[in-house]
Amino acid sequence: MLPLVGYNMRELESELCQIYGVSPDALMELAGLTIARHASHANVGVIVGPGNNGGDALVAARHLLDGGAKLRIFSLQTESPKLKYLIGHGATLVDAIPELEECDYIIDGLLGYGFKPPLAHNLATYIRELNSLEANVISVDLPSGLSPEGPVYGPMVKASATVFLGLPKLNAVTGIGLLYSGWWSYYGLGFETFFRSIKTGAYLVEDDDIRELIRSYIHRPYHKRLAGIVTAVVGSPKYFGAALLVVRTLIKMGTGLIYIRSHESVEDRMVATEPQVIKGEAPGVFVIGPGLEDLNLALAYASRPGPKVLDASALVPEVLKEARDALITPHEGEAARLLDTHPEFIRANRYDAAKALYDRFGCVVVLKGPGTIVYDGHDFFVIPATAYQLATGGTGDVLSGFIGHLLSRGMPLRDAAIVGCYVHAEVAKMFQHGLELDEFITSLARTWWKKYEYWWQKYEPK
Q1: What share of the chain is helix, strand, coil (3-state, %, to 5)?
Q2: Long-range CB contacts for residues 308-313, cutoff 8 Å, separation at least 24
Q3: Which of 34, 312, 389, 425 would bridge 385 by S-S if both were Cys, CB 3.0 to 4.6 A apart?
Q4: Among 34-38, 102-106, 133-137, 214-218, where is mean pLDDT lowest?
Q5: Which CATH class is domain 210-459?
Q6: Mean pLDDT of 404-427
Q7: What Å distances lie between residue 357 and 160, 317, 370, 381, 392, CA to CA?
Q8: CA 4: distance to chain centroid?
Q9: What is the pLDDT confidence band of residue 154, given thresholds at 50, 70 and 90?
Q10: Burial class (CB in 10 A: 0-12, 13-18, 19+), 352
Q11: CA–CA distance from 364 to each of 119, 304, 331 (Å)?
Q12: Using CA atoms, how far apart are residues 139 and 163, in angstroms rounded to an integer?
């Protein structure tokens, strides 16, 4: 997993320079070269701020100039030797950001990880002017106006792409920050082994991490009880569809035994629709909440022995206070209700909100949204996916069923949450149109079975 950092990035760079003898100028050269490779076009604008990000942008500009690019530069560093070199060798210095409107690409080097809100008035104006242009914007390290950690407020650059340098910054991989970062890539400045060795308490989940985590999953079960036992406490006469989505996800994932507890009419209809579902309950895993209108049922099962997924209607304080061995999956609106605040506050403080939910209810937290956060009381794990296709009613019910299946096959709560959210988002991104949920469930199951069989063969002892 890739460590995430905030303002402590400065300490890490200082350690690299002071203890290991790395030159700050060398790091800037590596950063600038990387940015230039992402912006190698004929007509490029460069915005140079007063700090090191501005220096990175100037180095990138030099490499682009060597490559034959036509450069237009807006700079707050008026006395920089790097700037003087560029102007002396053909680059054009402009007086205002709107003068960059003819550029194909613009490098955003206005502000870096040292920025702390609030924005000065002139900087806010520059950001708004940049966002009004039609050019593709490549941000250096993180979009200008976005603080690396802490509350996310105010105007920020809406980047087409962002190149994370050294390590990704906390606010750039979740919520609004992830949306404004655009397409992102990561570069370890030639010292990736050093940066990856850092323990920060917050981590970006990568594909290889999923391969490792599924090793705790029961592969090739010997019989149906080892294939997982799940009781779905879901649905109501009004919301039968939510129950059906959970159950169909469990079925297509290959869950061994599936029970349902709900309103009697829902149980009867479910068994008639999916004959392999059994009315009643059994010891094992519980998925509680999607479509459920009977709070007493949620209360009755929240404290039962066995791992649980609590979602939707089960996300109320009365139920969560009774929950044991559970994970919860709120979106920002549900999190706001549980914490007695408003969704905008959650959106601006996603890490703090996830921690507050854990501290209040003692459950592993899955705070859904762009860059879903999983928090287990010790560390944050961020799934850096922006899957717009998931903005569809019912996808959360599918996620609950999917995580329930992973739990039933032996995954711990935290690992099931990470793997479930990651794969759920990756499959959603495969769709080039809105999600038809039965098709989505089928694709989710097919992707999982194909991948876990491949990974299992890779790791299976010979």
Answers
A1: 45, 15, 40
A2: 309/285, 309/400, 309/403, 309/404, 309/407, 310/363, 311/287, 311/396, 311/397, 311/399, 311/400, 312/242, 312/396, 312/397, 312/400, 313/289
A3: 425
A4: 214-218
A5: alpha beta
A6: 95
A7: 33, 11, 18, 15, 24
A8: 12
A9: confident
A10: middle
A11: 35, 17, 14
A12: 7
Comparing CA positions, the residue from 174, 51, 179 lying closest to residue 123 is: 51
Q: Which two tokens stand for residue 257?
A: 């035994």
CA dist list (Å): 97 to 45, 122, 165: 9, 12, 25
Q: What's this model's pTM, rounded to 2 decimal places?
A: 0.93
First to last CA, the chain: 28
> Does domain 2-199 fall into CATH 3.40.30.10?
no
- DSSP class per residue in 243-311: HHHHHHHHHHHT-SEEEEES-HHHHHHHHHHSTTEEES--SSEEEE-TT---HHHHHHHHTSSS-EEE-
Contact 35, 57 (CB under 8 A): yes
CA 108 to each of CA 55, 104, 172, 295: distance values in angstroms, whole numbers, following the listed order: 11, 13, 15, 51
Q: Domain extents for the chain?
A: 2-199, 210-459
Residue 261 near residue 301, CB atoms below 8 Å = yes
**Bridge-partner residues for 202, per DSSP?**
380
pLDDT in tens, 1-56: 999 999 999 999 999 888 888 899 999 999 999 999 988 778 999 999 999 999 99
